[in-house]
Specification:
exonuclease activity, 5-stranded mixed sheet, DNA-directed DNA polymerase, alpha+beta, about 15% strand, 6-stranded antiparallel sheet, transmembrane, exonuclease, about 700 residues
Length: about 700
């Protein structure tokens, strides 16, 4: 019957019938009341009859109105709300699915019209997106090349605004600027490097009138104390009366260089000290003329010679240990080194067989290839060696052993020494085989092998077996140049949603009742800036709850007791997470649940989680209406966010889903007129019956001011 009404009758006719039914029903209720009241007149009198008639008519009309209201609420009000939410989602978020018109099937042509509008809007947006994509492909390619170039620059590159907030950084910079949390966009570089040298260098550049002026700066890490050599340059010259510009800072870790320099200086001091005194004493003995005439003089001479020999031997050993530290080395697979040598000598018509164990070598591969190729050429041309072979294996003393073998005459030490003194063609002047050996703090020697083969041995100290796939090095650079021109509002309530720094997080726990002893077993978080996720800026850690994880909980989040046995406790993980979320708005789905677990451990962590909070449950209620279902699954389904089944109910999986939902809801909130944090908080507090707002009443207040240099 309802479906027949929905398809056969127009919306205007159905609305008319509703009101006609209300009128007819009201009249009917009055007539029924009068009839029943008239029957009671003879028994109770005319007054009681009128009262009874009025009550019957009133309750009848009330029931009829309630029934009509229920029908309107179910088929009109809720339907319009769902239709509006779907239209808003497709207008402001990237949702490609067609609008579902089934909930609004009783609204006549409204649902098909809305579907047509959203479909046309989607087609227009897609066409526009394709046009923009075509026009920006060249820029995107150039941008990717620039990012790759800057990411692999062998120095940390950081672009900072005038208030020292990070706007751009490459992968090397993130490695250098480390602490509780690695460098991130909109974080202050003064949190990672000691401020005084940077402030002084920036002040000097601001006073300069040279557009090409640069300032060298030596600073230290605030956390580790590592020493950085930097170079600072302004983005542009400051204009009179204008805001101070930002600056580019290149950084290089010189801690090891300074340590090596100090070690070499100490070695030189010991050379002069340990050699000067025995030499002076020896000279005294010789000047005294006692060497041939007195036994005491001979003993004194022998003692001084012995001391001098011992000092020289000790200094030589120390020098051998340190001499390879200054030369730039790379990590290379042993098999790659062997293949390079085989290819090089093959160009000279020399056949060389090679093999290598699964090892990594730290060496100057180019120079080693040149040296080994040079030795192969000399073996063939000078001593007529044949059946050459090259093998790299693990050395019994640690490191690796390079063995060059051949059939033919045994190589004499003097001949090998002569070959090592010959200059190699490596693009550098005066580089000999002996120079290469010295740079690697090693030596080479000939020896007789088995079965008529002879060998040259060359050990390498820095080598190790390949036990696992090496970690992938992130090459991308991260930036948001809009931060250069962003003016701080000073008050969080007035901050636009798109300028908020948000940390979206989720926890997995042993149960649902923190007051009964349930604990956190995993925390994951992502940073969002400008309404977009920042690549690479994420946090994830298992937590040892110091109590068993129930099997029922493990079935949900797949975290086992074995996985957390060696994990840090909440005191350590909570402190790191607090540093990661510094100066950010915390975002979670059902935030009061996660925050209650964290706030119970504030004493152990040594920090308070009093951050401003956004809850995607309440944001969903603002966008889609309180009558909708607001679980994470329902929200992501409405927004077209796909959560892989294996990622659901994992801390990082739910965090990614929540972050994606937040990104899509920000433009929808703006479309409803909620553009600032304060406006959104006012809106979500209207849905307090659905879920308690995790912000304290005074949370929307002034926050961190960014100082201007």
């Amino acid at each position: 019957m309802h479906d027949w009404l929905a398809t056969r009758l127009s919306l205007r006719l159905r609305v008319f019938l509703f009101f006609a039914l209300l009128a007819v029903g009201g009249i009917g209720a009055v007539i029924l009341g009068e009839i029943l009241g008239y029957r009671r007149v003879e028994e109770s009198g005319i007054k009681a009859g009128f009262i009874f008639a009025g009550l019957v008519a009133g309750f009848g009309i009330l029931g009829l109105v309630a029934w009509i209201w229920i029908l309107f609420d179910e088929h009109v009000a809720k339907a319009i709300q769902k239709l509006a939410g779907g239209m808003r989602a497709r207008a402001h978020a990237e949702i490609a699915e067609e609008l579902d018109e089934e909930p609004a099937r009783y609204l006549g042509d409204l649902a098909p019209a809305a579907k047509a509008i959203t479909g046309t809007l989607t087609e227009t947006k897609n066409a526009l997106a394709e046009a923009v994509e075509r026009e920006t492909t060249r820029l995107a390619v150039e941008n990717a090349r620039l990012q790759a170039l800057l990411a692999d620059v062998p120095a940390g590159v950081v672009l900072c605004s005038s208030d020292h907030q990070i706007v751009f950084y490459n992968a090397h910079a993130q490695e250098l600027l480390s602490g509780e949390v690695s460098a991130g966009l909109d974080r202050s570089i003064l949190d990672y490097l000691r401020p005084a040298p940077l402030r002084n260098a920036f002040a000097r550049l601001l006073q300069s009138e040279d557009a090409d002026a640069a300032c060298n700066v030596l600073c230290a890490s605030s956390q580790s104390g590592d020493v950085m050599a930097g170079r600072m340059r302004l983005v542009k010259l400051p204009q009179r009366g204008a805001e101070a510009p930002g600056y580019v800072l290149t950084l290089r870790d010189v801690t090891a260089d300074l340590a090596l320099h100090a070690e070499r200086e100490a070695l030189l001091e010991d050379v002069f000290d340990k050699v000067r005194r025995p030499a002076a004493n020896l000279q005294t003995v010789l000047d005294a003329g006692e060497v041939d005439t007195a036994e005491g003089g001979r003993a004194a001479l022998l003692s001084e010679v012995s001391a001098l020999t011992h000092a020289i031997t000790d200094l030589g050993t120390r020098y051998d240990r340190a001499r390879g530290g200054w030369w730039p080395m790379d990590e290379i697979r042993a098999s790659e080194l062997v293949d390079s040598v085989v290819a090089r000598v093959g160009l000279e018509g020399i056949r060389l067989t090679g093999e290598a164990e699964r090892m990594m070598l730290r060496c100057d591969a180019f120079q080693l290839v040149a040296l080994l190729g040079h030795l192969c050429e000399r073996l063939v041309s000078v001593i007529r060696a044949s059946a050459l072979s090259l093998r790299i294996s693990e050395d019994s003393n640690g490191g690796a052993m390079i063995t060059l073998g051949w059939k033919g005459s045994l190589l004499q030490v003097g001949l090998l020494d002569g070959w090592l003194d010959v200059a190699l063609e490596v693009g550098l002047a005066n580089v000999t085989g002996r120079t290469v050996l010295s740079a690697h703090a090693t030596e080479a020697w000939p020896e007789a092998g088995a079965v008529g083969r002879n060998l040259i041995r060359l050990p390498l100290a820095e080598a190790w077996p390949i036990s696992a796939q090496p970690a992938t090095v992130r090459r991308s650079a991260v930036y948001d140049f809009d931060l250069m021109d962003r003016e701080p509002t000073g008050e969080l309530a007035q901050t636009p949603l798109r300028e908020l720094t948000c940390v979206v997080f989720d926890t997995e726990t042993t149960g649902l009742l923190p007051s009964s002893g349930d604990k956190i077993v995993q925390i994951a978080a992502l940073r969002l800036l400008g309404g977009k996720r920042i690549p690479g800026e994420e946090f994830e850690s298992l937590v040892n709850p110091e109590r068993p994880i129930p099997a029922s909980a493990t079935e949900v989040h797949h975290v086992t007791n074995e996985m957390v046995a060696s994990a840090p406790t909440i005191a350590t993980v909570g402190r790191r997470f607090h540093a990661f979320a510094q100066d950010a708005v915390l975002v979670a789905h059902n935030a009061p649940f996660d925050l209650e677990f964290l706030r119970l451990h504030e004493g152990e962590i040594g920090a308070r989680f009093d951050h401003p909070v956004l809850d995607t449950v309440l944001l969903s209620a603002v966008v889609f209406g309180q009558s909708e279902t607001h679980t994470l699954d329902a929200l992501t389904e409405r927004l077209g966010v796909v959560i892989p089944p294996e990622a659901r109910h994992t801390a990082m999986g739910d965090t990614i889903a929540t972050a994606a939902a937040l990104e899509m809801m920000i433009p929808m909130l703006e479309g409803q007129g909620y553009r600032t944090f304060g406006e959104v908080i006012t809106a979500v507090r209207k849905h307090g019956r659905l879920l308690r707002d995790a912000n304290s009443p005074d949370k929307v207040q002034p926050v961190r001011q960014k100082s201007r240099a």
